[in-house]
Structures are given as C-alpha cells and as structure tokens.
Specification:
The chain is an alpha/beta fold. It has helices at about 1-5, 25-35, 55-60, 130-140, 155-165, 180-185, 205-210, 235-240, 255-260, 275, and strands at about 40, 65-75, 80, 145-150, 170-175, 190-195, 220-225, 245-250, 265-270, 295-300, 310-315, 315-320, 325-330, 340-350, 360-365, 380-385, 390-395, 405, 420-430, 430-435, 445, 455-460, 465-475. Helix 7 (about 205-210) runs parallel beside helix 8 (about 235-240).
C-alpha cells in the first residue's frame, strides 16, 4: 500500500518541517515531506483546547498540523469515542468507566478542564466526540495517529477505518508492550510504537522494539523525561541508534525541540502545536479577558491541573500553585520583536501575602523558553523584583549560579496592600534596564548589556501566598 502511495504528489517542506499539504495528504506523502524536524499535535493540542475534543482537533488542523494524535475508548454498546482515560473523572463532568456507559447516556456529558480558562467552561464545554465524526471531519486533510486505549476497541477501530476508506491516512498507535503490531501490519497500517514512561525505557528494550519496527514506515516514540529532568542522553542515543525515526512526547516548549533535535530526535509530539511548531505569530499583550490560555502561555507543567492558573474574575489570572514557586512563561509574546528595546507594562495584586516574605518577579532577557524559577541557576537573564515589603530590586542571573548579581541599590517603597492593584513598568534599552512602580513613581535603573534574549517569565517567588496578574503588554 505504502509503495503505491509513494508516487503521490508531495508538499514542500518549510524550515525543516511540513506545515503545508498536498491536496490529499496520506501517511506516504507525510513521510516524504516532513523533513528532519516534524511535529504531531498531541491530544489535538491539549495545552490550549479541551483534549480530544472536536474543537481541539479542528484547532490543530487550522494551525496546519500535518498529523494529529487521537485516543479512543468504547461504550458498552460499541460506540468508539475520543478520550484518553478509561474513566471519565479527569476530563469530563461525570465519573465512572466509559465501558459501562451507553452512548445515549452520554448525550449531556461535557469535557471539562478548568485550567484552560472560563472560555471552555459552562456553555463552552464541548461534547464528547465520536471517532467516526472526527475521522469524517478530518478526512484526508491530515494524518491521524489513533490509539485504542480500551483493548476491546482495537478491532472495531480497524473495522471503522477500513469501512470509511481512511487506511491511507491512519497510523496505528501502540504501546511498546503490545502484541497487536502484527495485526496492525496485516491491516496495512504503519505503527507509532511508544514507551509510556521513563522507567520503561532501557537500552535493551529499545533495541528489541526497534528490531521489530520498519524504518521505512514506523515511528519509535520515547518520553522527554519525568516533567522536570530530561530522559538520559544514553537512552536517547540508544533510541536513535535503532535507525527507526525517533519522536519524543510530551513537548510543550520550543527549547525541548532544540534540546532533543541536537540529540538526533526527528519528531515532536506537542500539545501546544501552534506555539511549538511556530504556526502562530507572537502577540503584544495577554488576552485573559477572552478567558482562555494562549498558545505558549505555560506553567511549570502545562498539562497538570494542580499547576494550572486560577481564573477567578474576568481578565485576571491568579498564580495559585502552592508548595513551590509559581512562574508563568509568557511564550505567546515571544520571540519579542525587538528584544534590545521594549517596554513591558503589567499590573499585579497580592491576594494573600506569602508566609516568610517573598516577591513578585519579572524574569527577562532569556534566550529560550525553558522554565524559570528564582535561584534555579539554569538561564542567563535579568530579574526585576517587587518584594512584599515594597522594595524594588533589579539584578542579573547566570546559568550555573543560584545567586543573582545586583545591577543597582534596592529602592524602598510602600508594601503591597492585599487586594490593591499595583501598576509596574519594565523598560529595556540596548544598554540599560529600568524597573518602576507607576503608582508611586519609584524607579530603579541599571546599566548592563550582557544579554538581550526574547523570552520572559512572571512569577511569585514563594511557596505560599496568592498573586494575581492582569493587563500585561509589551511595546
């Protein structure tokens, strides 16, 4: 099948990946056109849309995703629908097992993921999506990488794909322990074979799995790490050494793409497709008044509800995570159009003061979008602080060092009053940085031209307390 499809027209590759398509894309044309660095929309782009919903799949398609990952489960009466978990608790308005429900009983069930914002709550919550509806809508517009999370859904999934005549556009997603790889091959489907967690990955097992795959049509997929620490280089190298094209998941940041591409990885499975693949242009202001997370706007782990933003009032987000610092990567603003000369305005409010002190911080001048926390020692850049006693501070931080270097003497001021907004302004020129409060007129300025990277963070540098943000804009 694949050999016959290889003669079809191929869309040109753009910047190492294919963001445009021939009129009738297939797995074969994708393979030929995707280049040495390609992207797959994970859960339909679940960092910014309710995962595995029709809006999520259509949103990824609108961004030009050439391949979309889809998970399915099965109802008690045999209907296949899109969902990652076997039960409803994590992502919907009900609880219980999917396999115990009839499709008719799910008519009023909605996908509900509060961390995505109020835009996707209430009447904005999408319905569950049937697989046949999704396949029909996506049609031959994109490759569909489909996994039956419920083992009982596997054969019905294959039957539906064949019935709808979609086999040329489908890749079968299977766990590395699955015994269904021969069955997928018999159905004429390439295989997306994945290791689900870092503790599954060993050099020996990678070699075994790689030997069972076909480098001309299959993909070998490994995790990026545990969410904090990358998968060891030796294991990434072992995966690449199999000769099977290697993909990593989950990818939320552009810096992760650069990190793994430098180690021979070709594919990146991202739940923020528009941002990571560069399909959306940077903006100049946050859009929290729209009530939805933006592509590139990330907490330390965008996919985890406990780390998510709180949306307690229109146009305002709250850094509410406790037991660790809470910083927000403003990737939607990056790369800044002029990182050597710009002005950043924002308003902050202390809703509940942290115990033992702390501060609100803008960290800026970073070369990439790796997650930042105070004292982390991973990035070169600057930090502008508003301490809880009202002091303004300005400094530079360096990779490999936990302590920052002051750029000027601290400037005292009135302590933040809980519940009151404080307007702040950061000004960057080619050789100076200035930080100030617009309510009191207090300013601190330092002369330094060491770094001028285009990425920035805003955060609460304390493990307790609540801080809200609004009206962040760059000019």
């Amino acid at each position: 099948m694949l050999a016959g499809l290889a003669a079809l027209s191929v869309a040109p590759a753009v910047a190492g990946c294919s963001l445009s398509w021939a009129p009738s894309p297939s797995v074969a044309t994708w393979w030929q056109s995707r280049g040495s660095r390609f992207f797959i929309a994970h859960r339909g782009s679940g960092d910014v849309f309710p995962e595995h919903s029709l809006p999520a799949y259509e949103g990824a398609l609108a961004w030009g995703a050439p391949a979309i990952e889809i998970s399915i489960v099965r109802t008690s009466d045999g209907v296949l629908f899109c969902q990652h978990d076997l039960d409803f608790k994590r992502t919907t308005t009900i609880q219980g097992l999917a396999s115990h429900a009839t499709w008719a009983s799910l008519a009023d069930v909605r996908i509900q993921i509060p961390r995505l914002g109020p835009r996707w709550m209430g009447d904005g919550r999408p319905s569950l999506a049937r697989l046949d509806t999704v396949i029909t809508k996506l049609g031959h517009k994109t490759v569909q990488i489909i996994e039956a999370k419920d083992p009982e859904a596997f054969e019905p999934m294959l039957a539906l794909i064949l019935e709808l005549g979609m086999q040329s556009s489908v890749v079968c997603k299977l766990h590395q322990s699955s015994r269904r790889i021969p069955r997928a091959r018999a159905a004429g489907l390439p295989v997306f074979c994945y290791f689900g967690a870092p503790d599954e990955v060993t050099a020996e097992r990678l070699a075994q799995v790689g030997a069972a795959l076909n480098r001309e049509q299959d993909l070998l997929v490994i995790p990026t790490g545990d969410g904090e620490t990358p998968l060891p280089d030796a294991l990434v190298a072992a995966a690449v050494a199999t000769g099977i094209p290697v993909c990593v998941f989950p990818v939320h940041r552009r810096s992760e793409v650069d990190y793994f591409a430098a180690r021979g990885v070709q594919g990146f499975i991202t739940s923020s497709y528009g941002y990571v693949a560069g399909a959306v242009a940077p903006v100049t202001a946050t859009a929290w008044d729209k009530g939805a997370i933006a592509p590139g706007e990330m907490t330390v782990r965008p996919e985890v509800a406990d780390f998510g933003l709180q949306w307690r009032e229109p146009g305002v987000v709250q850094l509410a995570m406790q037991d660790r610092m809470a910083f927000l990567t403003l990737g939607q603003l990056a790369p800044l159009a002029r990182p050597t000369a710009y002005q950043l305005d924002l308003q902050v409010r202390v809703d509940r003061a942290p115990t033992g002190g702390g501060h609100v911080e803008v960290a800026f001048g970073h070369a990439d979008d790796r997650y930042y926390e105070t004292g982390q020692g991973r990035l070169d850049g600057y930090h502008a602080l508003l301490r809880m006693d009202g002091t303004l501070e300005l400094g530079r931080h360096q990779a490999g060092k936990s302590e920052g270097m002051p750029l000027a003497s601290p400037v005292p001021g009135p302590a933040p009053v809980p519940g009151q907004w404080i307007p702040l302004r950061l000004e960057v020129t080619p050789d100076t940085v200035t930080w100030g409060r617009l309510d009191t007129g207090a300013r601190i300025s330092g002369r330094d031209a060491t770094v001028r990277g285009p990425y920035l963070h805003i955060g609460r540098a304390s493990s307790t307390g609540l801080v809200s943000l609004r009206d962040v804009r760059v000019t």
